[in-house]
Every structure is written in structure tokens, then in C-alpha cells.
Amino acid sequence: ANNQQLRELSRKLYNSSGIITNVIDYCVSLPTLDYIIVPHGDDKAKRKHNRKLAKSVIDKIRHKEIIRDGLLSNLIDGAYYAYLEILERPNDASKTLSDYDVQTIVEINADKKVVVGITTLPVDACKIVGYKYDVPIVAFDLTYFNVNGNEPTEKKLRRFPKEIRDGYSAYNSVGNSKNNWLILSTDHTIATKYRSKRIEPFGRPLCLG
Fold first, then answer.
1. CB 187: neighbour CB atoms within 10 A?
2. What is the 3-state secondary structure (H, E, C) of 124-158?
3. 81, 107, 145, 163: least surrounded by Cβ within 10 Å?
4. What tens digit of pLDDT does each residue of 35-49 get?
């Protein structure tokens, strides 16, 4: 709760203080985020194929946008969590949007399959609970779907990966379970935190130093 209060204060400062806004925006825009692909393979054809595949994935996930989103989240909230997903998420067949939909929309992939994509997870619903082979283990608070806003739970779930949807379904079927933290697969999660020790579950915002 205390960490969430710090994040809420940091967000207010970012939105109200021109100096803080400019410093954070400058830090986010400073890296050029250029990259070099070093392909592996037994022969030239295989390496060429792997290079093309890697570039396709990088382009598909819009890596510069994702990384800058992560930088912004780390500086404002002290942490960033995301989920690398290969499976297709269910599409909402509705062709119209409410005011709430417009304000909270994350991604629409109508009429085409998602081969690979990165879903940003809400910082307030995530924390690092340990490490597996030096990779952060992320836990997701399933009560997020019950207490945040007036949007129907089913519609909110559509924006989240299958692992989280299945986890919530199992959690909801038990009813009033205290085991509301879902441990996510380290094969799919991305987690970074700022200004904190390795053993701490949360990071600290830049402007609250």
C-alpha cells in the first residue's frame, strides 16, 4: 500500500511539475535504441533466415515504443512489467466503443492474428517475488479485475494474456480465495525496477529521491 501511494504521488508530480516532466521526458527520449542483430546458424542460409526472423519480431513488437514505455514507467512508477505473448488474444467483435473504452484502450488486432506481441501489465497489480536463474519471478494480483473501475471483468480480461485469463478463471471458481497472487511464467514476463535492491519487490520513482 505504501509503495502504491508513492507511485500515485509520483504520477501527480509528473503531471503537475514542468521541471519533473521535462527531466523524465528527456531521459526517456535520450537513448537512440538502435540495434545490431548477430544471427546464429550452421550455415549462411540459416543465419540469414534467423536474422530475418529476429528483425521481423523486433519490428512486430515495435521495440522502440515498448522500451520507451518501459523507461517512462520505471522513472515514474519505479518499475515496469510486461508479458511477451505468442498466442492470439480473443477479439471483441464490437465495432463501437464507449467513452470508457476510448480512455482505456490498449490494443486492437481486428481481423488478423497476432503472431507475437508485448502486453504492458499494470504496475499496481504486479510485484517481483523472487528469481529463477537470475530472471525475476513476477506475481500478478488477480483482485485487480474486481476492484479497478466499472468496466465488466470479462471485457477487461480480453486485454490480458491467456495465462492471466486462465489464472483468474481458476481463482474466481474457488470463490473468496486468499491465494490471489498468480505466479507468471518467467519464459514470458519482462520485469525491471528502478532504485531498489535486488531483494526488494518494488522500485522507487525518480522524483521521490
1. 8
2. HHEEEEEEECCEEEEEEECCHHHHCCCCCHHHHHC
3. 107
4. 999 999 999 999 999
| Cα of 166 vs its chain's centroid, Å | 18
Q: Which of 201, 208, 207 is nearest to 79 (CA)?
A: 201
pTM greater than 0.85 (yes/no) = no
Q: Which of 58, 166, 52, 186 has its CA nearest to residue 115? A: 58
Alpha-carbon distance of 154 to 209, in angstroms, equals 39
In sequence order, what are the residues at sequence separation of 6 or more whose Cβ sits closer than 8 angstroms to the Cβ of residue 42?
A: none
Q: In angstroms, rounded to a whole number, what is the distance separating the alpha carbons of residues 124 and 34? A: 30
Neighbour tally for 151: CB within 10 Å: 16
Interval 103-148: pLDDT, tens: 444 444 443 444 688 999 999 999 999 999 999 999 999 999 987 6
> What's the gap between Cα 157 and its chain centre?
14
Task: Give the separation between CA 114 and CA 98, rounded to whole angstroms.
Answer: 24
DSSP assigned state of 178 = S
Phi first, then psi, for residue 115 (nearest 5°) are -80, -45
* Rounded Cα–Cα distance for residues 168 and 155 (Å): 13
